[in-house]
Design a protein that fits this description.
502 residues; alpha+beta; Arc Repressor Mutant, subunit A; 3 domains; 10-stranded mixed beta sheet; 16 helices; GatB; Gln-tRNA_amidoTrfase_suB_CS; protein biosynthesis
């Protein structure tokens, strides 16, 4: 068994691209934000005490009868329509049979050969190039419970002392969105995977059917990857990396698996069709279990549920509730904000589009919103190994920080310290400024004294300014700002220096 500390051989990236064509597939699971579960009335609140949101139905007890959640069906149809899918006039559920500790019934109620939505597509933008990702299906199913493996070094079942199971999540409505094989991506395969999941997440949030929190598992991506010799047009043996839970990790997992497959194939080996686990800390995948094919799950129609047959009138009514197409929305926002193509691509690529939009809606200018999210906050998110949206700073916070800068209460340098306080949980931006004493000193007397001190300490510089070399004032401004711990208006300091020396 491969462990998290074992890194398999990798083929250099350029060698992979020279010898092999990648084929990519993505399966994205979206937890719906319905008030109750898919087939029973249990609540779906995240973070409740273990095993407190369960009943005979979601625990799979004998005699319990499921009932389909109508709101979940509605959400599934809206997702399908937003993905340009056909909506089935008639579909039904199936039992997917396999033993797993967090499946209390020993089968998952899902859809097999008759999904509610099929044959769709989503156009994604990667560095100015539009790439069409074809959607094979979007089907309804229920989530599993959650296992916690205690003891051992990896947090996984191998080496654990014992395991605990929380069935609160069992039965929560899921929509699984499955792409057709994405071919011809070449070196852009990792970026296309990330862009697709990012845009899909953006669409799901806009639809209002899920909070799509990757950090909480309400949207999870499985990455399927295979390589075939360049130019053959074939599909190689695939692996499926399960439950990748960040946009950054989706890109990294694709790149890693391409290099791992390449090393095996170039060495004369063969790829094992299996599921693999992604390790965020080490940036590698490790073996999970051999991957089953559809026939191994022994699908058969669910006998306890009636088919779902949405009327065409209802489908068209739901079509009228769809949000603006993400591609069209980005074009509209780019024009409104005055961003260049590169600025917009960077904003989208950083997963910051919605954050910037909300920050602007809260009162910040487009340039200020973009500046904070794509520089200061993006740096901090990268250092923390998390997504921007999960960093712990809200668009309202960013807009308020910028408002404090605009009012002259703080400057950009002090604003960075305000973000330190926000990330440390010290309260609102105003509370952080007060607690840390970050407000710019507006006391003319204190500023004048600091300027006098700087002039006295730097007579040579002062003489240059008196001789008309005004540019030399920068050195004195720096000295004053240092004495004032950055809490001075640099513009006003410059004015005072020139008033005293010219």
């Amino acid at each position: 068994m491969t462990t998290t500390s074992t890194r398999e051989a990798l083929l250099p990236w350029d060698d992979v691209l020279a010898a092999y064509d990648p084929a990519l597939g993505l399966e994205v699971h979206v937890e719906l934000n319905t008030a109750s579960k898919m087939f029973c009335g249990c609540p779906t609140e995240f973070g409740a005490e273990p095993n407190t949101q369960v009943c005979p139905t979601c625990l799979g007890l004998p005699g319990a009868m499921p009932v389909v959640n109508g709101k979940a069906v509605e959400s599934a149809i809206r997702i399908g329509l937003a993905l340009n899918c056909e909506i089935a006039e008639w579909c039904r559920f199936a039992r997917k049979n396999y033993f797993y500790p967090d499946m209390p019934k020993n089968f998952q109620t899902s859809q097999y050969d008759e999904p509610i939505a099929f044959e769709g597509f989503m156009d994604v933008d990667v560095k100015g190039e539009t790439f069409r990702v074809e959607i094979e299906r979007a089907h309804m199913e229920e989530d599993t419970g959650k296992s916690l493996h205690v003891g051992g070094a990896t947090g996984r079942i191998h080496g654990a002392e014992y395991s605990l199971v929380d069935y609160n999540r069992a039965g929560i409505p899921l929509i699984e969105i499955v792409t057709k094989p994405i071919r011809g991506a070449g070196e852009k395969a990792p970026e296309i995977a990330k862009a697709y999941v990012a845009q899909l997440r953006e669409l799901i949030v806009a639809l209002g059917v899920s909070d799509a929190r990757m950090d909480q598992g309400s949207i999870r991506a499985d990455v399927n990857l295979s390589l075939a010799p360049t130019g053959t047009g074939e599909l190689g043996t695939r692996t499926e990396t399960k439950n990748v839970n960040s946009l950054r990790s989706v890109e990294r997992a694709v790149r890693y698996e391409m290099q791992r497959h390449g090393a095996i194939l170039s060495g004369g080996g063969s790829i094992l069709q299996e599921t693999r686990h992604w390790h965020e800390d080490t940036g590698i995948t490790t073996s999970g279990r051999e991957k089953s094919d559809a026939e191994d799950y022994r699908y058969f129609p669910e006998p306890d549920l009636v088919p779902v047959a949405p009327s065409r009138a209802w489908v068209e009514e739901l079509r009228g509730t769809l949000p603006e197409n993400p591609t069209q929305k980005r074009a509209r926002l780019q024009a409104a904000w005055g961003f260049s193509d590169l600025e917009m691509r960077d904003t989208v690529g950083a997963g910051a589009l919605g954050l910037v939009e909300e920050t602007i809606a809260a009162g910040a200018t487009p340039s200020a919103a973009r500046k904070w999210w794509l520089s200061e906050l993006a740096r901090r998110a990268n250092e923390a190994g998390t997504e921007l949206a999960a960093l712990g700073v809200s668009p309202l916070d960013v807009a308020r920080v910028q408002a404090l800068v605009d009012s002259g209460s703080i400057n950009d340098k002090l604003a960075r310290q305000v973000f330190d306080g926000l990330l440390a949980g010290e309260g609102t931006p105003d509370e952080v400024v007060e607690k840390r004493g970050l407000a710019i000193v507006s006391d003319e007397g204190a500023l004048s004294t600091a300027v006098d001190n700087a002039i006295a300490a730097n007579p040579d510089v002062a003489d240059k300014i008196r001789d008309g070399k005004v540019a030399a004032a920068g050195a004195l401004i720096g000295a004053v700002m240092k004495e004032m711990r950055g809490q001075a208006d640099a513009g006003r300091v410059r004015e005072l220096i020139l008033e005293k020396l010219t």
